[in-house]
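User: Just a sanity check before I run the rest of the batch. Below are the structure tokens for the first item. I only need the designed sequence back.
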């Protein structure tokens, strides 16, 4: 009798305990609903984070093969890559990326200018998604890693998470941005600027033409975009569309390689300003016009180029840089004094006020040089003067935590090159992951990132995306 009573008491205790556990779970109807809809315990993905470092397996060989294959879609011979907006090779590259997105089980869509989105739906799809991505257009005779690592690496990061069994709470979305490079229409980060809601750019593109006098909209339509409208407001994203944006990129500088560090956690992106300057002089025969009688537009341009260097150096900051990337003389004959000159100037800094002071000093110098040399300053145009962007603290912390959990060395650093992240920061909190590249080379055929470094970057990206998805 005593034994039966003990067994009964034990059974009663177990039943009460189980009922108590179920009651605890039922106390939170939100969790129960989420579990009912998702089909698995809501804490399952959270537990993934604690074991993720050992479960992430990157298919590095496949990633390298895709990078090599994409590099063949070029208008110049290997090892260089040239892929200009809306050209045949650009369209083929877009098709290549969309196909890979589809093979990864992502739902694919495009907007009116060709920004491409590949989405992995989360189990709470109503929440703002976490986005990542970069670009695949390439300036003439450049390399095959700039931007590409951030697109193909993002696809591989999604594949890595899927192989590990992770299930995202917030949806994860990959973006291939249209025309990060300014090669064809003179506008950098064209796609991301429009996503960030630039009405001024949308308006300007209605009258923008390339070097062959092809309008932006005709070029876009030749590639299958902007088919039935000149209104690009449909491209604009509202602030908060994404809960976070993250971009994986080669450093494009030598610091990580020189210091033997695996990961760069970007804290800020320098603010670029682009200027166009034109001088007009009298020109004349190189032998017949004596030196005191000359109004040389070429020398005015040369003097301004040196002034740009001096103003940047005078700022007193290592973060101030200036470049005269284009200097053209007309008529361009050895025995003719230049009657016209054209300069395009790039100056940038992480401090917007300091950068703006440099721009103003360049303007003052152009005016003074024109006066002293008796030439006309026919144009001084600020093409763009963008503010810097700062990475979000919580995203920085997530990137740092991911690096530590993966036992990868990392350092906080500034991006002195600008990226689509600069403009995505206007839509959502932003962060960037840098990986080393050979000697810091970029925008040249020698550009290179090792399989090991790319794999490390993909792992950090994947783990950071997982962390942000579960927030």
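Assistant: Here's the designed sequence for the first item:
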């Amino acid at each position: 009798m005593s034994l039966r009573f003990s067994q009964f008491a034990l059974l009663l205790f177990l039943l009460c305990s189980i009922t108590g556990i179920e009651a605890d779970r039922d106390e939170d109807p939100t969790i129960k609903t989420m579990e009912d809809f998702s089909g698995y315990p809501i804490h399952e993905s959270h537990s993934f984070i604690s074991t993720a470092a050992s479960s992430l397996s990157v298919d590095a060989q496949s990633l390298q093969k895709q990078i090599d294959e994409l590099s063949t879609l070029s208008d110049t011979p290997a090892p260089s890559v040239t892929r200009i907006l809306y050209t045949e090779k650009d369209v083929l590259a877009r098709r290549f990326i969309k196909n890979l997105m589809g093979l990864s089980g992502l739902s694919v869509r495009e907007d009116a200018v060709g920004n491409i989105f590949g989405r992995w739906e989360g189990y709470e799809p109503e929440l703002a998604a976490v986005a990542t991505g970069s670009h695949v257009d390439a300036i003439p005779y450049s390399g095959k890693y700039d931007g590409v690592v951030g697109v193909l690496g993002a696809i591989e990061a999604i594949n890595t998470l899927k192989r590990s069994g992770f299930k995202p709470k917030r949806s994860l979305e990959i973006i291939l941005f249209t025309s990060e490079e300014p090669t064809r229409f003179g506008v950098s980060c064209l796609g991301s600027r429009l996503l960030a809601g630039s009405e001024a750019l949308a308006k300007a593109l209605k009258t923008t033409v390339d070097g062959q006098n092809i309008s932006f909209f005709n070029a876009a339509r030749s590639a299958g975009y902007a088919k039935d409208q000149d209104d690009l407001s449909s491209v604009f994203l509202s602030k908060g569309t994404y809960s976070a944006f993250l971009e994986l990129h080669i450093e494009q500088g030598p610091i990580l390689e020189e210091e033997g560090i695996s990961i760069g956690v970007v804290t800020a992106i320098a603010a670029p300003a682009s200027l166009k300057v034109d001088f007009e002089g009298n020109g004349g025969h190189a032998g017949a016009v004596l030196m005191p009688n000359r109004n040389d537009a070429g020398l005015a341009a040369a003097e301004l180029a040196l002034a740009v260097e001096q103003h940047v150096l005078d700022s007193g900051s290592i973060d101030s840089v200036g470049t005269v990337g284009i200097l053209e003389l007309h008529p361009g004959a050895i025995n003719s004094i230049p009657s016209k000159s054209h300069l395009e100037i790039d100056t940038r800094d992480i401090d917007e006020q300091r950068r703006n002071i440099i721009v103003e000093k360049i303007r003052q110098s152009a005016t003074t040089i024109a006066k002293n040399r008796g030439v006309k300053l026919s144009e001084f145009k600020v093409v763009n003067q963008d503010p810097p962007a700062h990475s979000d603290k919580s995203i920085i912390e997530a990137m740092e935590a991911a690096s530590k959990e993966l036992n990868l060395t990392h350092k906080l650093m500034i991006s002195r090159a600008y990226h689509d992240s600069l403009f995505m920061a206007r839509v959502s909190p932003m962060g960037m992951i840098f990986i080393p590249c050979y000697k810091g080379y970029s925008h040249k055929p020698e550009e290179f990132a090792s399989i090991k470094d790319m794999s490390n970057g993909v792992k950090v990206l994947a783990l950071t995306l997982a962390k942000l998805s579960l927030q």
